[in-house]
């Protein structure tokens, strides 16, 4: 159960100081000439005020775009392998949206459902998330259609909701309690604030459980090819997505030494499934778009009992050809079997 | 922090190289680490990722039988960057191996049954592991038949073993090459695999069929087996989707909710019928 407190603007300033004295870096949305992305900050004044969403997601904190998995040296008749250790710094992710906080759960599902991924886990162990409830939304948002909400605490160790003079602070996890313990006096007893009245209103756009249950029966439906007609397969949707976890493994090497790197990838790319023989199980863009939707809304629920989408809308905002995930899901949900 | 690095391969020394057919080679690989050599175990049907350090990793089955201890073998065709780098290696060179990954052929369930193996071209290697495994446990099974076809005589792999199998009385071998692929002294059949299988008059009763080959061969052979009366539960195949991790994470072998690297590579036709045809 969350313990609820009040955290004034002044107290937040103090909390930033306490976190930094504790040896943690603070990553928060920063406004750089109108573009808001995560960056390292020292004080709340450096955090972007009044932002809606960063373009890129927060997943890079735990799952970097490029990560060294191992390195080696090569000599005649000899190879020496070197294990790689992730550079996992104690980090507080401040002010991310509830959808993004929730997305770490979807990444964890893949990285640890069977074999455990030490790179992801080392970073997650060092990470605490202070989420920030949304007080506004745009037409790309659909968190409430996928089990989330603008003030949903899932995935946040502490969730802040803006109130007069500061924030309502819900301490949700042990990691959150450990942060409060750094400066317990800053957290004042909370009063009965109606979070729902403050949070943004995001209308439910479609019936997700119904969509999930009808997807297996509409694999051959023409809706996927139709929706993907204008998809150019650029992969921007996957790169900004907070839950997209598919990756490539690439070699960077010369004749004497090399390293093996894990890099973000996308099921939207033609080469993603291309066999060495030239055969491609997902030959056309429509099949690749369908995979994206099915992976998130059918295979994830079946395999991990959760969705692979948090409704953040980043893919829609980033798409250069205006593919709108929410609109496409509304359309798919409306297909009669 | 105690998690191990699941991407770290074993180092293997190439103990033997066999030229199988144009651009196809078999490596016998031995573990450099003594402890790994002793503890390593796998079951037939499993695969691994093989490293050419400097170029990357490729996915192949383990082509040797788990009953033959102390080494593993892989057979590959030179088609891309990694396989070209592997093909350049010599005996004594070091490569990497991660595995074993994936599920297995259920040999225990096949006890007391007839086995029919049907392989095309470079798809004999995954079945060679099972065939030797079954021959080494010969009294578990009734009749063992192998149908193997390739484009031409020179494209047949494991020629020494084909000769050995043809001389053994406890295994029936039928080889065939595509029309035009025969040589003047070719003793086998000439024709595509599906009609050759049809002409054999196989009895489906108490028999399992294990099929592996290029997609077109599989597509045309499955209806033949169904006509012969094989139920989908008695037809096995092994898929080789593109993979990077082999660990159920990188996402590219994902077919329906199945990961070929974890839930496969071995599937029955009954199981494949439940999946989208994205393999």
UniProtKB/TrEMBL annotation, chain A:
InterPro entries: 4Fe4S_Fe-S-bd, 4Fe4S_Fe_S_CS. It comes from the Bacteria. Residues 221-252, 300-328 form the 4Fe-4S ferredoxin-type domain. One of its GO terms (molecular function) is metal ion binding. It holds the Pfam family Fer4_22. Keywords: Iron, Iron-sulfur, Metal-binding. PANTHER family: ANAEROBIC SULFITE REDUCTASE SUBUNIT A. This is 4Fe-4S dicluster domain-containing protein. It comes from Candidatus Geothrix skivensis. The lineage of its organism: Bacteria, Pseudomonadati, Acidobacteriota, Holophagae, Holophagales.
UniProtKB/TrEMBL annotation, chain B:
Its cofactor is [2Fe-2S] cluster. It comes from the Bacteria. InterPro entries: Cbr1-like_FAD-bd_dom, Cyt_c3_hydrogenase_gsu, Dihydroorotate_DH_Fe-S-bd, FAD-bd_FR_type, Flavoprot_Pyr_Nucl_cyt_Rdtase, FNR_nucleotide-bd, OxRdtase_FAD/NAD-bd, PyrK_electron_transfer. One of its GO terms (molecular function) is 2 iron, 2 sulfur cluster binding. Residues 7-107 form the FAD-binding FR-type domain. Keywords: 2Fe-2S, Iron, Iron-sulfur, Metal-binding. [2Fe-2S] cluster binds at residues 245, 250, 253, 261. This is FAD/NAD(P)-binding protein. It holds the Pfam family DHODB_Fe-S_bind. GO terms for biological process: pyrimidine nucleotide biosynthetic process. Binds 1 [2Fe-2S] cluster per subunit.
């Amino acid at each position: 159960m969350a313990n609820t407190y009040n955290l004034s603007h002044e107290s937040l300033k103090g909390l930033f100081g306490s976190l930094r004295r504790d040896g943690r870096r603070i990553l928060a949305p920063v406004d750089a000439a109108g573009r808001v992305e995560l960056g390292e900050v020292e004080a709340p004044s450096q955090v972007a005020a009044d932002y809606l969403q960063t373009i890129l997601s927060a997943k890079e904190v735990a799952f970097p775009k490029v990560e060294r998995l191992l390195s080696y040296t090569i000599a005649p008749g000899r190879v020496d392998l070197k294990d790689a250790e992730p550079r996992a710094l104690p980090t507080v992710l401040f002010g991310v949206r509830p959808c993004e906080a929730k997305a770490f759960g979807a990444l964890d599902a893949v990285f640890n459902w069977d074999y455990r991924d030490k790179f992801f886990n080392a970073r997650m162990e060092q990470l605490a998330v202070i989420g920030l409830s949304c007080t506004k939304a745009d037409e790309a948002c659909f968190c409430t259609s996928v089990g989330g909400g603008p003030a949903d605490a899932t995935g946040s160790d502490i969730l802040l909701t803006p109130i007069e003079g500061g924030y309502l602070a819900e301490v949700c996890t042990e990691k959150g309690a450990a942060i409060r313990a750094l400066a317990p006096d800053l957290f004042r007893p909370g009063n009965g604030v109606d979070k729902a009245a403050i949070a943004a209103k995001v209308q439910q756009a479609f019936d997700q459980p119904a969509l999930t249950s009808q997807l297996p029966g509409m694999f051959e439906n023409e809706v996927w090819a139709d929706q993907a007609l204008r998809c150019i397969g650029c992969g921007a949707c996957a790169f900004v997505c907070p839950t997209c976890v598919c990756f490539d493994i690439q070699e960077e090497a010369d004749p004497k030494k090399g390293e093996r790197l894990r890099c973000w990838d996308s099921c939207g790319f033609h080469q993603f499934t291309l066999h060495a023989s030239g055969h491609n199980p997902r030959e056309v863009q429509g099949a690749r778009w369908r995979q994206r939707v099915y992976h998130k809304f059918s295979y994830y629920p079946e395999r991990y009992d959760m969705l692979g989408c948090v409704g953040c809308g980043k893919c829609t905002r980033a798409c250069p050809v205006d593919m709108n995930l929410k609109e496409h899901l509304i359309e798919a949900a409306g297909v009669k079997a | 922090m105690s998690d191990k690095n699941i991407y770290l391969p074993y180092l293997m020394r190439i103990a033997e190289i066999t030229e199988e057919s144009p651009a196809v080679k078999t490596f016998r690989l031995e573990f450099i680490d003594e402890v790994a050599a002793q503890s390593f175990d796998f079951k037939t049907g499993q695969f691994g990722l093989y490293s050419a350090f400097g170029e990357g990793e490729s996915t192949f089955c383990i082509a040797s039988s788990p009953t033959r201890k102390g080494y593993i073998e892989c057979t590959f065709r030179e088609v891309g960057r990694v396989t070209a780098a592997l093909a350049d290696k010599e005996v004594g060179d070091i490569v990497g191996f991660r595995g074993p990954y994936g599920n297995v052929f259920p040999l225990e369930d096949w006890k007391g049954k007839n086995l029919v193996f049907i392989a095309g071209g470079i798809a004999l290697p995954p079945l060679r592991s099972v065939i030797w495994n079954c021959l080494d446990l010969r009294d578990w099974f009734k009749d063992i038949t192998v149908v193997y076809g390739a484009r031409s005589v020179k494209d047949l792999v494991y020629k020494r073993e084909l000769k050995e199998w043809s001389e053994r009385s406890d295994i029936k071998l039928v080889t065939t090459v595509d029309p035009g692929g025969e040589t003047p002294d070719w003793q086998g059949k000439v024709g595509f695999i599906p009609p050759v299988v049809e002409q054999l008059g196989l009895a489906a009763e108490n028999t399992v069929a294990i099929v592996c080959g290029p997609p077109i061969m599989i597509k045309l052979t499955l209806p033949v087996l169904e006509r012969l009366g094989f139920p989908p539960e008695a037809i096995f195949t092994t898929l080789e989707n593109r993979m990077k991790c082999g660990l159920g994470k990188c996402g590219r072998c994902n077919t329906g909710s199945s990961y070929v690297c974890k839930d496969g590579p071995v599937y029955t036709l009954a199981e494949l019928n439940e999946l989208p045809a994205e393999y």
